[in-house]
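Data deposition worksheet. Section B asks for the primary sequence of the deposited chain exactly as it was used as input, without tags or linkers unless they were present during the calculation. Section C holds the resulting structure in C-alpha cell form. Section D is free text for depositor observations; keep each observation to a single sentence. Incomplete worksheets are returned to the depositor.
Section A, Depositor: J.P.
Section B:
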Amino acid sequence: MSGADQPMAYQAAMFGAGCFWGVEAAFRKVRGVVDAAVGYAGGHTDNPTYKDVCAGHTGHAEVVHVTYDPAQITYPQLLATFWSVHDPTQLNRQGPDVGSQYRSVIFYYDEAQKRAALYAIGQLDVAKRYRGPVVTQVQPAPTFWRAEDYHQRYFEKQGGGHCHI
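Section C:
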C-alpha cells in the first residue's frame, strides 16, 4: 500500500467552554469525532482533582479533549461546534458557572490550529455574531489531565443532565 492509500492519522483538539459535561456530550454527537474526554488543562498543579479545580486554586480550566478523524471533519468545523456550545464573550463564566475553571479557551496543538482559531475569532467579531467581542483565549496545548471516571460521559451515565448548554 502506498502512502497515499493509507488513512490519515487521527488528530487532537482541546477546548474549554464552561462545564465540561455538556461540551463533551455535544462533541460526541459530531460526525468525525472519534472520542471526547473531559479533564483539566492550563493550570499549575500536576494531577489535579475535580475538587481542586472547582476550588479555583489550580489555575486549570475544565476542558474537553477531542480526538477526530480529519478525513471526516476539519478543525474549523470543530471550532463551529465550540462556538455553538457556549458564549465566547464571557471569559470566566458560562451560565451559572463562574470562575476561571469555566473560561472560554482554545488550546491549540499546532500553528494551523492557532491560525484557524484566531481567524475564526476575527470573523466572528467582524460579523458581530455576538453582542460583545469574543474574549476566548488561544493558547498552546498544555498537559491534559483526564478527569475522574465518574465525569466521563456524565450525561450518558446520568440519563441526561443540565449545564449551561
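Section D:
The chain has a mean pLDDT of 90.
The first helix runs from residue 20 to 28.
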